[in-house]
Write a structure and sequence with these properties.
Shape: flat
Radius of gyration: 25 Å
Oligomer: single chain
Number of helices: 17
Length: 317
């Protein structure tokens, strides 16, 4: 049955009735246009020899150089190190930070003591609101040569001299992933816990009557029921893989915890763009590097969505 088309007068009346809601929507659209779409005009700098002294008009009037800066980046001596660190840290974060919130949400859901459950949940997501600047300071207090961790290990006789957690490249990846798991697990647990709470409890009762244990109920009821949420979060995480996955914190971590002694493990694309773009004033070159990252992220979103729909039947598009 076809829906009757509304007349212009009916559209106007409906719009006036929904005016508060429409304003919310329009403000969101305006935000996207001003802060997401308009800045995309600056992408053209990646293909031009732009100088900041030329002002905004220079973005359009400067000389066209094509793929010059893209070629310069992929042939740069730092390119292999930057790609290795960016991909390595991001993949490790995806492997460890993605499943942990799911498991934590399942465990929280099984807690029957409501006050204790609320306390645990609150304590777990509070680190999300702590700035990486503060966390970097805390990490320095814990992991420095004279920090709490080294003092404890030496007091227990497990080590004879302090471990250089902050100044050694071999420890940086593990520290970055560990801090990220601690900071973001509780926040993403909220998403999965909300999906679990929405599951029909009659299914669990029926499974109990049939003799299904707790692990069996989790495997055959909980996980299939929250599969759409898991897939959606996974696609978003893959789309932001180079940014840090679920947390998007690669830049903050590398910039605050990175130094000349661990730079072989902490230097990533984002810090390279920041240093080249602001410190050296090479805006066109930095834009080209950032555009490469954005294109790869876009490809990952569409690829992960396609594979998800093909193998699981669930996607976001």
């Amino acid at each position: 049955m076809k829906r009757k088309r509304m007349s212009p007068q009916e559209y106007k009346r409906t719009f006036r009735k929904q005016l508060p809601l429409q304003l919310f929507v329009l403000s969101g659209i305006a935000y996207l246009i001003v802060f997401n779409f308009v800045p995309m005009l600056g992408i053209i700098m990646a293909f031009k020899d732009y100088d900041i002294s030329m002002g905004i008009s220079g973005i359009f009037t400067s000389d066209w150089v094509g793929l010059k800066y893209f070629k310069e980046f992929v042939t740069d001596y730092q390119f292999p190190t930057l790609m290795k660190n960016t991909i390595g840290i991001s993949v490790l974060k995806l492997i460890f930070t993605f499943p942990v919130p799911i498991l934590f949400a399942i465990m929280l859901n099984d807690i029957r003591c409501i006050p204790f459950k609320k306390i645990v949940q609150t304590c777990s997501y509070l680190p999300h609101f702590i700035s990486w600047v503060v966390i970097a300071g805390i990490a320095s207090q814990f992991f420095s040569s004279t920090g709490i961790i080294n003092n404890l290990l030496m007091a227990l006789g497990l080590i004879e001299e302090p471990i250089a957690f902050l100044s050694s490249a071999k420890y940086y990846w593990g520290m970055a992933v560990g801090l990220d798991v601690w900071k973001e697990t509780g926040w993403w647990t909220i998403v999965f816990l909300a999906a679990i709470v929405g599951i029909n409890q009659d299914m669990y009762e029926a499974a109990k009557i049939d003799g299904a244990g707790r692990l069996q109920r989790t495997w055959y009821i909980t996980l299939p029921a929250i599969k759409p949420t898991i897939v959606t979060v996974l696609i978003l995480a893959l789309g932001n893989l180079f940014g840090g996955g679920l947390s998007g914190s690669n830049f903050e971590q590398s910039y605050l915890l990175g130094n000349t002694m661990n730079s072989s493990a902490s230097s990533i694309l984002q810090t390279y763009v920041f240093d080249v773009g602001l410190a050296l004033g090479r805006y066109s070159y930095a834009t080209a590097v950032g555009l490469i990252q954005s294109i790869v992220s876009l490809i990952l979103v569409f690829l992960s969505n396609h594979l998800s729909k093909k193998f699981t039947g669930v996607g976001i598009v």
